């Protein structure tokens, strides 16, 4: 990364944050001829996006058709709306769904190929696009995008924390104050994008809106402290749905560093069992339902159970195993002993499950997806999981052009927001695979709309 001494005093547009939304917006705006800078407070790029592991949802994509999957935008819209408790911003959701397949194709231009498909909770079709290598989608996306941003000659600075948004006499946002190792600098620009992520790692903000979750651990990177929300509020932006915080059902919280165990593992066929070795929920219900079911056990979490067949289809397991999160058993009895659950019950549970897969009918819990393979290939594996704070659905109120709105619903000229920092798209529960899609879809839109604004205000 270049030294912050090389920061110029003026750009066409400033992008604050270097996760999926920030990097996408920078590339899109650069494509359209803008001189852009990306400012990142952390020492490396990627933000929370780099931790995402399941996939990027899209409907009616060429990848789906290549796999013989006939999907439609209407179903994607309806299922996301239902998953969000009908509290989603409908205009944003419509834009999101209608531009999802295009976003997958746009990434291909940059050699970011999401050509394998899996399914996540609340979806009826395989919509979660991921790399063919099945490596975790977030790191794959952000590492390659960072390379493309540098290749395009876009200035990108780490260790650069934006502390204030600047405005002109007409209240248009026209620059930022940024803290660097070389002191505080003022940078001017016609447009500023906040792509700073959510507040999942901010005890203060969580305490304010959801005191019941303040003691939960989080899957977020430590920088997810809601900086963008504070910057926006200081110039009169409206925040919305701030009490909508998603708890992810499957995180390993036994270590100081919390690891998210991707939903794709259940999408490939893993099941959840309690201390008695029995299933207790449809594992691919929405995150809210599954998280509540685990919490209601009052048993110090639950166990994800899977076999070698499932493991072969979810590459992230290799990483989980490498860092010591996975218990192994040559047989189910062996595994049951290692994790302290009833061996007979576990055996019976797996037999029941394998019959359900065979017949395509889960009589116990009504699961209909992630039933492509039986759990019958040893060795067998288990991961101990707990729910953890994962995603903040609320945030800055924006319109479909990613323009930031003030508390009267008026546009704050020159200010844009995209990704997890914005609110409204997901309603009260985010569907797995929709956050990566949001960063690319609305990141592109921000790049396009900032360019339009800059051209109109020459």
Annotate the secondary structure layout.
Elements: E1 10-16, H1 20-31, E2 36-39, E3 56-57, H2 62-66, H3 73-83, H4 90-98, H5 100-109, E4 116-118, E5 128-130, H6 137-151, E6 155-157, E7 161-167, E8 173-180, E9 183-194, H7 203-209, H8 227-233, E10 239-240, E11 245-252, E12 259-260, H9 264-267, E13 271-273, H10 287-295, E14 302-307, H11 308-311, H12 316-322, E15 326-329, H13 332-339, H14 343-359, E16 380-392, E17 395-397, E18 403-405, E19 411-417, E20 422-423, H15 434-456
Parallel strand pairs: 1-2, 1-9, 2-6, 9-19, 17-20
Antiparallel strand pairs: 3-5, 4-5, 7-8, 8-9, 10-17, 11-12, 11-16, 13-14, 14-16, 15-16, 18-19
Helix pairs in contact: 1-6, 1-15, 3-4, 13-14
Description:
With 458 residues, the chain is α+β, with helices and mostly antiparallel strands. It is 32% helix and 22% strand. It is built from 15 helices and 20 strands. Strands 1, 2, 6, 7, 8, 9, 18 and 19 form an eight-stranded mixed β-sheet that branches. Strands 11, 12, 13, 14, 15 and 16 form a six-stranded antiparallel β-sheet that branches. The chain has a three-stranded antiparallel β-sheet with strand order 3-5-4. Helix 1 runs parallel beside helix 15 and helix 3 (73-83) runs antiparallel to helix 4 (90-98). The model has no long low-confidence stretch (mean pLDDT 94).
Provide a quick synopsis of the model.
This protein has 458 residues and is an alpha+beta fold.
What is the average of the pLDDT values?
94
Number of β-strand runs: 20
Low-confidence stretches: none
The percentage helix is 25-40%
Distance between the termini: 30 Å
Structural class call reads alpha+beta
Kindly provide the radius of gyration, computed on alpha-carbon positions and rounded to a whole number of angstroms.
22 Å
- Proportion of residues in extended strands: 15-25%
What multimeric state do the chains show? single chain
Main sheet record: 8 strands, mixed
How many DSSP helices? 15
How does the overall form come out from the CA principal axes? elongated
């Amino acid at each position: 990364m270049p030294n912050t001494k090389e920061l110029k005093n003026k750009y066409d547009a400033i992008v604050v944050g270097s996760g999926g939304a920030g990097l996408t917006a920078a590339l899109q705006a650069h494509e359209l001829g803008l001189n852009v800078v990306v400012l990142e407070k952390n020492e490396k790029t990627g933000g929370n996006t780099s931790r995402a592991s399941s996939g990027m949802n899209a409907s009616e994509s060429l990848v789906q058709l290549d796999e013989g999957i006939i999907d439609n935008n209407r179903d994607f819209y309806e299922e996301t709306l239902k998953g969000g408790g009908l509290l989603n911003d409908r205009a944003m959701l419509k834009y999101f769904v209608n531009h999802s397949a295009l976003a997958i194709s746009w990434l291909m231009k940059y050699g970011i190929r999401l050509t394998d498909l899996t399914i996540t909770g609340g979806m009826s079709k395989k919509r979660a696009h991921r790399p063919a290598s099945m490596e975790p989608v977030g790191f794959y996306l952000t590492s390659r995008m960072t390379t493309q941003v540098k290749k395009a000659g876009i200035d990108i600075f780490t260790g650069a924390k934006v502390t204030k948004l600047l405005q002109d006499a007409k209240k248009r946002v026209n620059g930022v104050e940024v803290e660097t190792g070389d002191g505080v600098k003022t940078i001017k620009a016609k447009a500023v994008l906040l792509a700073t992520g959510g507040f999942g790692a901010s005890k203060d903000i969580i305490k304010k809106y959801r005191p019941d979750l303040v003691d939960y651990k989080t899957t977020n990177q430590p920088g997810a402290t809601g900086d963008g929300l504070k910057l926006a509020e200081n110039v009169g932006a409206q925040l919305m749905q701030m009490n909508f915080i998603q708890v992810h059902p499957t995180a390993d919280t036994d270590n100081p560093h919390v690891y998210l165990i991707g939903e794709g593992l259940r999408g490939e066929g893993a099941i959840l069992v309690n201390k008695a070795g029995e299933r207790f929920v449809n594992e691919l219900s929405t995150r809210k339902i599954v998280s509540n079911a685990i919490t209601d056990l009052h048993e110090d979490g639950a166990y994800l159970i899977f076999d070698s067949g499932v493991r072969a289809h979810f590459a992230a397991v290799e990483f989980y195993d490498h860092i010591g999160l996975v218990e192994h058993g040559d047989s189910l009895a062996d595994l049951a002993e290692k994790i302290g659950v009833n061996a007979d019950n576990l055996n019976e549970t797996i037999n029941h499950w394998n019959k359900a897969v065979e017949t395509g009918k889960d009589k116990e819990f009504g699961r209909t997806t992630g039933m492509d393979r039986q759990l019958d290939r040893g060795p067998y594996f288990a991961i101990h999981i707990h729910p953890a704070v994962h995603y903040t659905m609320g945030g800055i109120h924006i319109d479909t052009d990613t323009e930031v709105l003030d508390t009267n619903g008026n546009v704050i000229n020159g200010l844009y927001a995209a990704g997890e920092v914005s609110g409204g798209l997901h309603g009260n529960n985010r569907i797995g695979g929709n956050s990566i899609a949001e960063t690319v879809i609305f990141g592109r839109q921000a790049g396009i709309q900032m360019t339009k604004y800059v051209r109109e205000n020459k």
